[in-house]
């Protein structure tokens, strides 16, 4: 083959599989979205349609990859969670981040006319992505708490900022002046400004803006038509839900325990003794045939020496 | 800040900067494009409009990133070359592959109606990407030779295959039968079949199909209107060219020496003595202020001991 | 400084810190120890003094690094376990493996005369080392089960092999013949040969040979002389124990629960409010009780929207 | 096999092969050598015997590994250079750094009595090691210039410092006072102090102290006894030389061009047609003359389209 003498260049590729038996988070972030949102006249501080479009793209990713169990989005970023047993793309990092970023950006472009019917897309958006490995459920919980706290802080700031900038009573006020006013306020101070000066109760603003969006699968009763009888039947199906819940406390996670439950990989389900009831994953174990473990039995016998 | 107690999760991110002073290749590959091309009824064995669309996406990448000096595409894949002095995204691997894959797929979706006016895009395409590090010019040359040899082999096979499958004289012939016939032929054998049975001189088929597409910048004389005088003036500008040249021999590279020339990084241009005339890159050196190298001078004096 | 213009070469060093909040195993392996043991006439199939020397080297490593909680050795290999909170060498991989391999080999050379008084060391031994990252306690348990099962299999084979090779009733028997006989036997078969032909009950052989050696710290009552009163006092001290216990079942781990207990990192204990003003650090914040700062409280309030 | 169910833990090991076709530097550094040198009463500012011992250890490494072409040492550190074609340990990083650090420290312990006959080794030394990848010859040259400049700066400082501290005319002078005096001197100032106050011409001090030590192989005429005739014959053999040359200028490298010459890997020399039937391997195919296989010839034919 003509390729043979050049094929050695393939040996420069690195094996970039992420550590087995760990949680993976893939976070997408819009590039130059300040400019993008300005060019397409997004509403300030939040454009509900643009956020809905982000969520629709996330939904398409969840639909494509069963291995992704949750998405959390705020502003122009979206995080995807994969459990320790996920084997998607053999956990290769470059493949994972490039595929998800690629599909997300293409879907954003594809779905734009549906969510932004009155605005022409001038140029397609670009998202970068990174993968981060987390060993424990607590790390994962803290990750989403980190992103949601970030959402809260940014949104409280932006809401106060834009309310003051767009204040019709102060048409002369510059963005720089508002920045100066807000620089030394804490959360309580911003709530106070909104409430006393603008009669806005921050806690009553849409949860999507304050909490960000969370997408995940739930078993839901769905009425379908039986193929055999033609009668309507109710079946339990995985349905992707979008909520704007608090992710920092326990309530959300307690209500949806399946999200943080680690399962044995599919192959393991077939193996008789592949389950260990300890919430851990038999990453490779599961796929190995258990040939007559006679030596093993012996090792487990009481030691009589 | 509310984020503080969770921000530790950021410490799990890995520094994934690619080795300084090396050539980088980012290769994109379409996912499930067999299915995608079938669903959108691409012409067989080559769809010129679909290849033009690929090239248009590559062009948008070259336009966005001055650090990319060449793109080479065949079928549903596209490779981008970055020189040792490229500092794009601080050479972070995940950022690099996700951004390029994202922009490419979004552009593909965005430009589809322009290149495929008679076919509705059913769902957007997905591309994965990987980055490979090459230390030498010879490795880079061999990389592109590898991809072009791959293009040649696949295209010769596909051209022969589809010519035989679509042969109106043999409407009964199955794809499996054609595969069986071609299994043991070499390149000469396939050329022979095309020439004697179908009167096709393979070498006369479009170069885009046989050689793939190469995009790169050339200094080109461009007539512009002078801002000061309003008169037409001829200026040398970087223009992105698309060719279908042979990349295995020396001719292309000799004709465009700038592509494989390593430049000192921008910062180095400012430093007086930052250039060494040896075709190497002062990756960090360039950015360090040269404080009075008095100790150094001494070291370089003849040793009198 | 004379170094300045060259110091850029330091930027080619890679950040090789291992994933935070994971178990680390460093496994050392003797190089060419078949030859080394032959040159120094080690007893076959096991040389107790040579194994004691290995254990003495492991003990010196445990004494040097508080972050290492367990060592397990068999034949010419030794594994060290570090818990998720270990910050030794900032978890840099090259530093970790090179330091431990270096100290181990140097100690082996240094302690040789004490353990092998009648044999001159001809040339010092060499050990390589690798670091492996394990996310869960189950993975760690399985790691040590893997090594101990390996010890068992090798030792049962070697014991049978050397007993047959050195059998005075069959002086003509070659090692090749013995290999051929043993090739198709399982564990029961080898036990049977030892018992019926040589009157050896394998289970009664020294546990160090059959199980390998385990070193770890235990709180032990130690009688010391009080500095103030000069009287003997009994104090709880960390003492390094060497045992030859089974590591596959639960008994050992249940008896020594401290080994697999994850602690908060030292830095966190010192910091009053968990903040360090330096960025990352709190690798294991997850296991620390969270004092809620002000923005946080707000987030945790019931959502009234 | 008993191991089977646990062997999955091996899948957590990472492929850590360093980039093919690049220069590798492995740098060893003594741990806590300030303390070690004090405990063993090393002469100040330089202990010639201790440096000779370092060089003897480096020599043992060069003798063991043909793939190492140069060692450079100063103080308690030693750097080893491996060329792009080096395949030692399949270029696995952990194996490389741990093996070299291990052998070096064990040799140091082993050879101690020979180099330090009057001092008892109290505890063995420890060295850590790191591997750094350099793509170009210029980077390699700059690396050794960096280390030698470091040697020069440190040695000039230490020589001046200890000369002043040990000055019998100023027995009352503390190390702190000398530090204060030297803080603001440059190289010329330190030379001046040595020359005017102590009549020491720094350039006349031993080159080993000022330049560090360089070890490498040279083809040297060696007189041997012919095995066939029993007569003395002169043969060209690789002999390891130790020099204290300047590595910053060109003279050393021009005089020993073999050190920085890249060779085709051994495997390639053996293979007739460059094919090995095993997949990757031909890391350095690039530097081998290409025999054109049949498809290839066709590609190289003039394009007639």
From TrEMBL, chains A, B, C, D:
Binds 2 magnesium ions per subunit. Gene3D superfamilies: 3.30.70.3000. GTP binds at residues 29-34, 75-76. Its cofactor is Mg(2+). It holds the Pfam family Thg1C. One of its GO terms (biological process) is tRNA modification. It catalyses: a 5'-end ribonucleotide-tRNA(His) + GTP + ATP + H2O = a 5'-end phospho-guanosine-ribonucleotide-tRNA(His) + AMP + 2 diphosphate + H(+). Mg(2+) 2 binds at residues 29, 76. InterPro entries: Thg1_C_dom (IPR025845), tRNAHis_GuaTrfase_cat (IPR024956), tRNAHis_GuaTrfase_Thg1 (IPR007537), tRNAHis_GuaTrfase_Thg1_sf (IPR038469). Keywords: GTP-binding, Magnesium, Metal-binding, Nucleotide-binding, Nucleotidyltransferase, Transferase, tRNA processing. Residues 138-230 form the Thg1 C-terminal domain. GO terms for molecular function: GTP binding; magnesium ion binding; tRNA guanylyltransferase activity. Mg(2+) 1 binds at residues 29-30, 76. Its EC number is 2.7.7.79. Residues 6-135 form the tRNAHis guanylyltransferase catalytic domain. PANTHER family: TRNA(HIS) GUANYLYLTRANSFERASE-RELATED (PTHR12729). Adds a GMP to the 5'-end of tRNA(His) after transcription and RNase P cleavage. Belongs to the tRNA(His) guanylyltransferase family. This is tRNA(His) guanylyltransferase. The lineage of its organism: Eukaryota, Fungi, Fungi incertae sedis, Chytridiomycota, Chytridiomycota incertae sedis.
């Amino acid at each position: 083959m003509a390729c043979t003498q050049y094929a050695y260049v393939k040996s420069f590729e690195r094996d970039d599989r992420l550590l087995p038996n760990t949680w993976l988070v893939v976070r997408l972030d819009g590039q130059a979205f300040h400019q993008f949102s300005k060019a397409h006249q997004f509403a300030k501080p939040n454009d509900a349609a643009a956020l809905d479009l982000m969520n629709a793209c996330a939904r398409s990713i969840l639909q494509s990859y069963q291995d992704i169990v949750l998405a959390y989005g705020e502003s122009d970023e979206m995080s995807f969670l994969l459990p320790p047993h996920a084997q998607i793309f053999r956990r290769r990092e470059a493949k994972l981040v490039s595929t998800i970023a690629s599909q997300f950006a293409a879907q954003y472009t594809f779905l734009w006319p549906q969510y932004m019917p009155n605005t022409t897309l001038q140029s397609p958006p670009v998202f970068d992505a990174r993968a981060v490995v987390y060993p424990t459920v607590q790390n994962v919980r803290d990750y989403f708490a980190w992103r949601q706290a970030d959402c809260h802080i940014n949104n409280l700031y932006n809401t106060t900022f834009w309310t003051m900038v767009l204040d019709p009573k102060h048409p002369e006020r510059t963005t720089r002046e508002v920045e100066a006013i807000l620089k030394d306020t804490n959360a309580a101070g911003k709530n106070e400004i909104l409430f006393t000066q603008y009669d806005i109760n921050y806690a009553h603003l849409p949860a999507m803006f304050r909490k960000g969006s969370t997408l995940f699968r739930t078993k839901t009763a769905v009425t379908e038509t039986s193929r055999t009888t033609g009668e309507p039947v109710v079946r339990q199906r995985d349905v992707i839900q979008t909520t704007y819940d608090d992710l920092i406390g326990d309530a959300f996670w307690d209500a949806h325990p399946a999200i943080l439950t680690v399962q044995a990989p599919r192959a393991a389900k077939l193996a008789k003794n592949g389950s260990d009831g300890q919430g851990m994953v038999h990453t490779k174990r599961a796929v190995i045939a258990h040939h007559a473990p006679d030596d093993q039995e012996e090792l487990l016998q009481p030691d009589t020496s």
